[in-house]
Amino acid sequence: MSKDRQKIYKIEIILTVLILICTFSTLTKNKYFTAGFLLISALVVCNFLKKKRTLKVNKKKIRIVMLIFGILYVTLYYMLGLYTGFYNQTNMFGIKTIIKYIIPITIIIISTEVIRDRLLIDKSTRSKALITIIGTLADISIYLDVYGFSNLNSFLGLVGFVSFAALANNLLFTYISDRYGKESIIIYRLITILYIYIIPVAPDVYIYFRAFVRMIYPLIIFSYLDKYYDLDKYKERPKELREQAITLLLGSAIMIILIALISCKFFAGVLVIGSESMTGSIDKGDVVFFLKKDDIKTGDVIVFKKEDIKVVHRVITVKNVNKEFRYYTKGDANKMQDEKYVTKEDLIGKVTFKIKYIGKPTLWLHDIFDKEG
Fold first, then answer.
1. pTM passes above 0.70
2. How many domains is the chain built from?
3. d(CA 204, CA 202)
4. pLDDT tens column, 320-353
5. Considering the domain boundaries, does residue 365 fall inside one?
6. Which residues, in sequence order, are CB contacts of 337 under 8 Å at separation 6+?
7. Strand ranges, E, within 39-128
8. What are 114-123's pLDDT values in tens digits?
9. Per the domain annotation, does 105 fall within a domain?
């Protein structure tokens, strides 16, 4: 290994360790702490590593392409809100939001891309892997004031919505920076991150659907760039392209179906049983699949809302009172029937089948966070 490569490798290792400590320290809820660290790191890296001249083709075109992809991402997201509805942002655009969020996030983004661009002097796979990790950790730090380790939902959001998507995006950013420079990435990231602090409303989209889109979108961008802008290396193989397209479509369809089921916002859903009220027929840790149906009769197992909690109990009586159907329910393992009856407004769906035990890992995680709380 050459001396220059050894120096770059040492810098990458040190940066990875420091950004890891920085990201998961209690100070990271103040974004200026991370922004300051990355800004200083960028200055140090630029001082120690002199950027070598590299041929970066299509730089101007890629800036326009990434600008369009960024605007398209936000546009499609808000078009989806026409179906799901909108909610008001908690951080309204103004001086306070600019100071607290927009300025430090902008510093984090620009500093990260300067570091990535300068470290890519070494084009080895190991170096690119470390650079991607550094960028991923920096991305995670942006969201740690919202997602973290305080409860299970926050932790799942950190893993599912933030971490996986950050890794997918940074694989793309390392690829782009190596070929086209840092400017197009900065443009794209500023658009796709800062819009939530500027637009006063946001689409009410299920978080894991957003996470899936954030993971699949970089792959779409990569496929586009690889096909249309790396023509010197790219040799079209129609059969392989068709196979990749079919695999991508099938994988995306499966993920969309799973996310739709977990969100329980469409015609069907899945639910992990977290109590023992139905033990004997449906046990704690089982997963039930339900369909949104109105043709409920005595003996059916239904899913309904009870004070914002989803309950799975059996219907023991159905009454029609003044043209209002009332469903009286009871857990199979309970001695008494439920105090209140269920109306059509409370009804979510009818259980059609169950899968044994596969929900237990989710319950274990709940137990871990409940004990910590």
1. no
2. 2
3. 6
4. 888 888 999 999 889 888 888 888 888 888 888 8
5. yes
6. 316, 328, 329, 330
7. 86-88
8. 999 988 887 7
9. yes
